[in-house]
Amino acid sequence: MNGFPIGILQLWAHLPFFPGNVSNAYTYDFPVKFIEVKGSGIDNVLAGDMSIVDNIVEAAKQLEKDGCRAICANCGFFGHYQRLVADRIDVPCYLSAMVQVPWILVGLKSNQKVGIMTANKNTLTPSLFEACGITDEMRRRCVVYGAQDMEEFPHILTGEGGLDYNKLGDELSGIADKMVKENPDIGAILLECTDMPPYAHRIQAEQNLPVYDAITLIKYVKSTVTQTPYYGFL
Q1: Using one digit for the tens of pLDDT, what is the confidence trace for 170-224?
Q2: Alpha-carbon distance 196 to 213, whole Å?
């Protein structure tokens, strides 16, 4: 089996994945291969449950055997396992949108911050930052706002009920607006949660700031493992 530049680790979740979500194949204009991690779910991945590390590595190795050139994941909280998985497989892996933080910060003014919108602020721990290559100094330049207390978004965290696309968009738009107004030194926004990229265009249009997410990460990684020749004239 060949032809999959990106393999995606999936936690189990009974949710609708809108186009733009990491778990919706229509999000991509290139082939991706999905694999579910045994024993994984929203609760234990968000908590960084280390009992599933071997299952994550097993799934990543299967994607590698299937010809995937790099491994990503469908939840930013797989960042808890970033270093542990990278050390045990033979292709690059980037398991969380959070790994973009160092790169984002280096392009901003030294007095600017990155505003991070996350599924649950309470589980975006210092250890996850560290696992994703974010130093304490970098973390001090991060402002974190969570969606865990909204009305619609928690359906994602519980897996109960459906999702209203427009209502969810309004909630995320409101979080971004509040975050930027309360922190005018924010120079870029990062969407940690893989359910947020369907609204990245709206957030950017409203805030006039660069917006990074899991899809910007995956597309960038894909470009690095599928280089092609250039043609033209001098």
Answers
A1: 999 999 999 999 999 999 999 999 999 999 999 999 999 999 999 999 999 999 9
A2: 8
Q: Is 166 helix (H, G, I), strand (E, B) or coil?
A: helix
Check residue 211 and report its DSSP letter.
Answer: E
**Alpha-carbon torsion (151, 156, 157, 158), positive or negative:** positive
Domain boundaries in the chain? 6-96+218-225, 97-213
Task: Give yes or no on whether 6-96+218-225 and 97-213 have one common fold.
Answer: yes
What is the identity of the amino acid at 120?
N
Could you count the other beta carbons within 10 Å of the beta carbon of residue 82? 21
Residue 76: HSE in the Cβ half-sphere, 13 Å Cα cutoff: 32
CATH class, 97-213 region = alpha beta
Q: Supply the pTM of this predicted model.
A: 0.96
CB 101 within 8 A of CB 190: yes
Neighbours of 174 (CB within 10 A): 12
Residues 56-84: tens digit of each pLDDT:
999 999 999 999 999 999 999 999 999 99
6-96+218-225 belongs to CATH 3.40.50.1860: yes
- Strands 6-12 and 70-73 turn out to be parallel
Q: How far apart are CA 231 and CA 227, in angstroms?
A: 13
H-helix segments, the chain:
42-47, 53-65, 82-86, 101-106, 126-131, 136-139, 154-158, 165-182, 200-207, 214-225
